[in-house]
Amino acid sequence: MESPRSDETGRRVGRRVFLSVLGAGVVTTLFGHDIAQTISGLANSGGFALGGFEIYTVTGSIPAIKTTTYRLKIDGRVAQPVELSYGDLRSMVQRDVTFTFTCVTGWTVPNTRWRGVRLADLIDQVRPHPEVHGLEFYSADGVYTDSLSLEEARQSNVLLAMDLDGKPISADHGAPVRLLVPSMYGYKSVKWLDRISFVPQQVPGYWEQRGYPVNATIS
Ligand SMILES: Nc1nc2c(c(=O)[nH]1)N[C@H]1C(S)=C(S)[C@@H](COP(=O)(O)O)O[C@H]1N2
Ligand SMILES: [Mo]
Predict the structure, then answer these.
(1) Is 129 within the bounds of a domain?
(2) What residues have their beta carbon closer than 5 A to ion ligand 2?
(3) Any ligand 1 atom below 6 A from CB of 103
(4) pLDDT exceeding 70 applies to what percent of the chain?
(5) Which of 61, 92, 116, 125 could be joined to 159 by an S-S link, Cβ 3.0–4.6 Å?
(6) pLDDT at residue 84 is higher than 60
(7) Residue 13 is assigned to a structural domain of this protein
(8) Distance 56 CA to ligand 1 centre (A)
(9) Model's pTM, two decimal places?
(10) What is the domain-level CATH number for residue 121?
(11) pLDDT, tens digit, for every residue of 99-130?
(12) Is the dihedral of CA 94, 215, 189, 114 positive or negative?
């Protein structure tokens, strides 16, 4: 469903795949993520519907990550590299951000309310070296990545989100921690976030290597 092309053919194919997995999405809620893995594997681009969202996973599976063993690695060109547990992140100041979630393929979910740690607070804590201009974000799925410029990453509404609409985010949405960049298309919002690396220059992410713009600002 994620394709840089938006011609009629691409859209029709996208819709057919979407409808064929709708029913299975409901089954997922009842019986857990093994079914989600199978379904998104079949759908190939990994989309099924959940509360207005389409759930994407480029690997075809939904990682199950325990909050008790979760670690977020922050490394690269910084004065203070750290590894943070879920508890560490929860003990930091929690911020709320409400916005319309927008995928570049055309679907939106209005008024999504997210809560978590402001990325700018973590940047202050690790103190990037002067040559840093980019941040790389890695998913625990082992495949998905994206990036921001240091300036974009400091925007006050950029979160490491742990709650959606007052509840811990589900595995489908990237639990226990996902990146959220409200001013940009959804592909910037890396799910199952487990590493942030500070680098001299921004590196194109998964979808950007496949044709989407590195600056994903919604105009
Ligand atoms: N790890 C990972 N993160 C990801 C993706 C993905 O496939 N894998 N898809 C991206 C895209 S294109 C969008 S639109 C959003 C969708 O978020 P959702 O699956 O919670 O609806 O997640 C983004 N983050
Ligand atoms: Mo997307």
Answers:
(1) yes
(2) 103, 186-187
(3) yes
(4) 79
(5) 116
(6) yes
(7) no
(8) 5
(9) 0.82
(10) 3.90.420.10
(11) 999 999 999 999 999 999 999 999 999 999 99
(12) positive
Please report whether residue 138 resides in a domain: yes
Report yes or no on 10 lying in a domain: no
Q: Which residue among 58, 184, 191 has the greatest number of ligand 1 atoms within 8 angstroms of its CB, and so is best to mutate?
A: 191
In order of 81, 82, 161, 181, the CA distances from 74 in angstroms are 6, 5, 16, 18
Judged against a pLDDT cut of 60, whether residue 35 lies above it is answered with no
Mutate to test the pocket of ligand 1, among 107, 114, 169, 189 (most ligand atoms within 8 A of CB): 189
Start-to-end C-alpha separation, the chain? 22
- Amino acid, single-letter form, for residue 14: G
User: Tens digits of per-residue pLDDT, 140-152?
Assistant: 999 999 999 999 9
- Which ligand does the CA of 55 lie closest to? 1
Q: How many domains does the chain have?
A: 1
- Closest ligand to C-alpha of residue 54 is 1
Task: Name the residue with the closest Cα to ligand 1, atom 10.
Answer: 187
Residue 43's pLDDT band (cuts 50, 70, 90):
very low
Residue whose CA is at the smallest distance from ligand 1 atom 6 = 57
Amino acid at 139: S
**Mean per-residue pLDDT for 86-102?**
98
Give the H or E element holding residue 168. strand 167-168
H/E stretch holding 17 = helix 8-31
2 lines ligand 1 (CB under 6 A): yes
Give residue 195's domain range.
66-210
